Amino acid sequence: MISPVSSEILIRPARPEDAAFVADMLYLSMGKLADYLFENAKQPAHTLIKKMVTRNAGRFGFEITFIAEADGEPLGALVVCEGAKLDSLNLAVVPNIFSVMGLVPALRFLWRGYALPGGREAEKDEYYISNLGVSAASQGRGIGSQLMTFAEERAQSVSLKKCALVVGLYNKNALRLYQRLGYQIVETISHPNEYLGYHRMVKQLS
Ligand SMILES: CC(C)(COP(=O)(O)OP(=O)(O)OC[C@H]1O[C@@H](n2cnc3c(N)ncnc32)[C@H](O)[C@@H]1OP(=O)(O)O)[C@@H](O)C(=O)NCCC(=O)NCCS
């Protein structure tokens, strides 16, 4: 049995020096979607994500990222934003993606992103949990749940009454966690590639 984290968990805003860890957690939380979107013969997806984080590139930026740490060691990361800001964060990715990937892979990235199945990830009256990841050795110890509670508190601090997220159809563990925390499936997008199908989930905050 995995024991809870003994030291106190501190949740703090991410800093530029967290870029490598944030990239690890983004890559972990995106699963094979990251390899699909960031396909580039020259550099692996993880390297490209790290470059995007370093550039603070829109929804990959450390400015919308929070780190859970214990004894100064980062253990998990959360990327969140107001649903109303998602479009501008997506737009801010565009110039950076050309610099980081080069012309042809960047165009492929943008096309694949545009053609992803489904509609908006979050509505304007929702707070959006874009990414959540806990390092493998620290999973199952309550850190993900604490980061989710933190996200909900932030939503309430900006007067939003709903939190939203999407979870890949393949990701049964994360789905179970979100259901336990009170998130309900509001939409299911099926796709022959299981890494592209997802549930959109929403929680009404009290
Ligand atoms: C999903 C994730 C963020 C949960 O964080 P966590 O710190 O392990 O979560 P907690 O300890 O607070 O809660 C554990 C719950 O998560 C689920 N879970 C997910 N992965 C788990 C793991 N490796 N070990 C144990 N539980 C896991 C379990 O369903 C468990 O729920 P239960 O207590 O009702 O059984 C984390 O496991 C993770 O980073 N997974 C890989 C990336 C990912 O899938 N991110 C979400 C994308 S939508």
List the helices and strands and how they pair.
Blueprint: E1 10-13, H1 19-30, H2 32-37, H3 45-54, E2 65-70, E3 73-82, H4 86-101, H5 103-114, E4 127-134, H6 143-157, E5 162-168, H7 172-180, E6 184-189, E7 198-204
Parallel strand pairs: 4-5
Antiparallel strand pairs: 1-2, 2-3, 3-4, 5-7, 6-7
Helix pairs in contact: 1-3, 4-5
The structure holds coenzyme A (COA).
Coenzyme A binds at residues 28-29, 132-134, 139-145, 167, 171, 173-174, 176-177, 180.
State the gist of this model.
The protein is α+β, with helices and mostly antiparallel strands and 206 residues long.
Can you tell me about this structure?
By secondary structure, this protein is α+β, with helices and mostly antiparallel strands. It has a single domain, classed as 3-Layer(aba) Sandwich (Aminopeptidase). 39% of the residues lie in helices and 23% in strands. The protein contains seven helices and seven strands. It has a seven-stranded mixed beta sheet with strand order 1-2-3-4-5-7-6, with helices on both faces. Helix 1 (19-30) crosses helix 3 (45-54). The chain is globular.
